[in-house]
Amino acid sequence: MSWQTFRTEPSYYEGRATGLLASATDGTATAVAEFTRWAVAPSADGAREVVARSHGFTSWTELLAEAGRGPFADAYRLVEARDLPGLSALLDERPSLVDEVGTNGNDLLGLAASTHDERLVSLLVARGADVRRGNVHGWTALHQAGYANLPAMARVLVEAGAPVDVSARGDGGTPLAAALFWGNVEVARVLADVEVTPRNLRTAAGLDDVVLLESLWGRPSAGAHRGFYRPHSGFPSWQPGSSVAEVRDEAVSWAARSDAVEALSWLAARGAELDANVYQGTALVWAAARGRVRAVRRLLELGAGVDVRGTFGGPGHGVGTTALHHAAEGGHVEVIEVLLAAGANPTVTDDLYGSTPAGWAEHSGQAAAQELLDDHA
């Protein structure tokens, strides 16, 4: 079955080719399989050829000329417009649309999940959409619910039989892992109630499950299934290691972003490095970026450095930034107050833009945070 186009702009397909190549470079099996399927070498031009041929076209030029035409594209536009009656009417005429897939293997259910509209998802599930199907990265609608912190949507999908144990974007990249990567504790609880998978140290830390932490401590399973480390290729490439220190310190970061203060204390008591920057952000930076006031307070009490610099996010984002920069960016005023009371420097500049936390607040339109920081500068 060829992929159906549903977008018209060339930049969209260029982005999909770039993402496909990044996933294949990471070793994501489904992405590698696409290059193998067409006997194309993994390169930028090769990725474009794979994308074109996967859509049933002979060339990249032909793909761009024909993109965005046909019933699947019509259905996508109804999904994008959140037009429930229109989508329902089109599915009445063409019920097989729920079985068709678009660019990078995205079906209508996955596309609807990305709109965060539970009504559209419920309609497609009722019309027979396959809740088990993932796209070329293995990403299912349930992964999207975890990624976007949509507990109600997750319940609809789980009740329809969506699997909670399938990995995407690397081993261990389950819907629960996708949720906990962002500290999305509300949807994480829904998923964990079905099954805690994978059962490793960072998952236990994100769930603030000290009993599970204790059961894993010192066992090989503590660091197992950590191939997943980013939800999309906007984050830089990284190869997770298996050292006890890295596994432990990564768990601290996952606890921090989920406000899991008991897990933070438990890990710190066992030698965790609170200022470690295991992958794109120290624990304090993650807690500050996610507005986790309790975690920020606990980390500072445990001895985390208030002005430690690190990296955060994808290329061109946080380089040489502190927790105060990211609290300012998110407009988390209470976190800013806690950091300032602990001695955070409001005049520190990052290494990429040379901007203070107040500058980051201004750039993000966070007026209250900017005013607070300007008063302290």
Please tell me about this protein's structure.
It is a single chain. This protein has 377 residues and is mostly helical. The chain has a domain at 201-376: Serine Threonine Protein Phosphatase 5, Tetratricopeptide repeat (Alpha Horseshoe), CATH 1.25.40. Helices cover 53% and strands 2% of the residues. Strands 1-2 form a two-stranded antiparallel ribbon. A hairpin with a 5-residue loop joins β1 and β2. α1 packs across α3 and α19 packs antiparallel against α20 (333-341). The longest helix has 17 residues, at 10-26. The mean pLDDT is 95.
CATH fold description of the domain at 201-376: Serine Threonine Protein Phosphatase 5, Tetratricopeptide repeat
Strand arrangement within the widest β-sheet reads 1-2
First-to-last CA distance: 60 Å
Q: State the low-pLDDT regions, or none.
A: none
**Topology order in helix (H) and strand (E) letters:** HHHHHHHHHHHHHHHHHHEEHHHH
Helicity level:
40-55%
In terms of DSSP E residues, the strand content is under 5%
By DSSP, the count of extended strands is 2
What would the average pLDDT be, to the nearest integer? 95
Q: Looking at the structure, what is the overall shape?
A: globular
Which architecture name of the domain at 201-376 does CATH use? Alpha Horseshoe
- CATH homologous superfamily classification of the domain at 201-376: Ankyrin repeat-containing domain
Strand-pairing-aware structural class: mainly alpha
CATH class of the domain at 201-376: Mainly Alpha
- The number of helical segments is 22
Q: Rg, please?
A: 22 Å
Most strands sheet:
2 strands, antiparallel
